[in-house]
């Protein structure tokens, strides 16, 4: 524990404390981004395919729209 290297949980807590009008929306956006990065990672590892960062950002935006259409109100509050 005393390695001085921040842990993912430390980062998560720091981001969660970021002042915003929609803290739940921010946490939801972080989960969405992590989900898309995880899927990209799997494509690279298991399918030997990779996307440009701009394509990944487009995927994040499109998936976010789908989440909002599915009723994720907190994310809609953050972006709308």
Could you please describe the fold and organization of this structure?
By secondary structure, this protein is an all-alpha fold. The protein has one domain. The protein is 71% helix and 0% strand. The chain is built from four helices and no strands.
Q: Can you lay out the helices and strands and say which pair or pack?
A:
Layout: H1 8-16, H2 23-46, H3 53-69, H4 73-79
Helix pairs in contact: 2-3, 2-4
- Principal-axis shape: flat
Output the structural class.
mainly alpha
Tell me the series of helices and strands, N- to C-terminal: HHHH
Low-confidence stretches are none
Mean pLDDT: 87
Give the number of DSSP strands: 0
> What distance separates the N and C termini?
40 Å
What fraction of the residues are assigned to beta strands by DSSP?
A: under 5%
Q: Helix share of residues?
A: over 70%
State the domain count: 1
Put simply, the count of helices is 4
Largest sheet: none
User: What would you report as the Rg, rounded to the nearest angstrom?
Assistant: 15 Å
Looking at this protein, list some descriptive labels.
mainly alpha
Summarize the entry for a quick read.
The protein is mainly α. The protein contains four helices and no strands.
